[in-house]
Amino acid sequence: MEIVQWEDIPNTALRFGGSVLALGNFDGVHLGHQKIIKRTIELAHRNNNPACLLLFKTHPLKLLNPDAKLNLITSLSDKICYLNELGIDYLIIKDFNKEFAQTPPSEFVYKYLVNALKVGGVVIGFDYSYGQGGAGRAADLAK
Predict the structure, then answer these.
(1) pTM: predicted TM-score of the whole model, two decimal places
(2) Does residue 91 contact residue 53 with C-beta atoms inside 8 Å?
């Protein structure tokens, strides 16, 4: 597994063309997350494309609700080990910052998924949301 910092994406974007990207708030690598990750790998490798996962350095709630008590399931270093064992090809690590949090859902799709990463598909969990205020949902992403 290759670890890529988000800031380095402009230099490596061509490697992600056609890739399948797992999206979610991977606070751990529990069975539900493992199902998403395994499906990502299956879909990507079916067409000889890389399987990628976007992981935030810090949990989004630390920015969105700093007073909330946050019990993280798995440390970042442990997550990296587990993801490597599961077979992710590229682990993309990004800071979750205020600018990113305020990105409208459609801009998130075009700016990050289409233009920056050039992904061929995404795999998400049943309750995944994205974009400013979590306004984007699976049905929006499918469009």
Answers:
(1) 0.90
(2) yes
